[in-house]
Amino acid sequence: MQLAPAEKASLEPNIIVYKAVTDGKDPVYQWSSTVDANVSYSIAFDTHVPVGTTGQEITVANFTRAEKISRATMIGLLTAIKDPKERQNAEAAIANGDSFTVSQRGADNPNYSWSSFSNSLVNYTITVNAQAVRSAEANF
User: Fold this and answer.
1) pLDDT, averaged across the chain
2) Are 13 and 31 in contact (CB under 8 A)?
3) Where are the alpha helices (DSSP H) in 1-140?
4) Where are the domains of the chain?
5) Angle subtended at Cα 136 by Cα 114 and Cα 116, rounded to the nearest 5 degrees
6) Band of the pLDDT at 2, cuts 50, 70, 90?
7) Which residue has the higher pLDDT, 133 or 45?
8) Which residue of 31, 111, 113, 121 shows the fewest CB atoms closer than 10 Å?
9) How far apart are CA 55 and CA 57, in angstroms?
10) What is the per-residue pLDDT for 106?
11) In what order do the strands lie in the sheet containing 56-68?
């Protein structure tokens, strides 16, 4: 359930919420945590989610929490990547990385992302499947 974490984040003291609307799309509301400078939040609305077969639509809100994290945290994820070649590729990308962030939308799996030092046009992502049967598994 997304309501409890979103409500808790919205009740932090002295928050300033920004509304962003791009190209006529549904609005996104964003704010930074006043409790932890490494954390930010957003709520995005999708007003056109189809329901049933009669063409009805509902509005769905998606809450996302993002946090800046360390390179050490990223290195700790490597053991969750089962494929040795992908693990090696991820290790090289982390070594060449900058601005590491973990984000999670609602109860979805967390996504770890960062940019390349050597090429600012290159971004990387590791997705962790926290519901894996034996242990968390990650894909690079």
Assistant:
1) 90
2) no
3) 3-10, 71-77, 84-95
4) 3-65, 69-139
5) 10
6) low
7) 45
8) 121
9) 7
10) 86
11) 18-20, 28-32, 39-51, 56-68, 97-105, 111-116, 123-129, 137-139
18 HSE (CA, 13 A, CB side):
9
Task: Go through 53-89 and write b for each residue having 16 or more CB atoms within 10 A of its CB, e for each that does not.
Answer: eeeeeeeeeebbbbbebeeeebeebbebbeeeeebee
pLDDT of residue 123: 94
3-state secondary structure of 15: coil
Q: H-helix or E-strand containing 29?
A: strand 28-32
Q: Report pLDDT digits (tens) over 51-102.
A: 888 889 999 999 999 999 999 999 999 999 999 999 999 999 999 998 999 9
Tokens of 5: 């974490």
Distance CA 129, CA 81 (A): 10
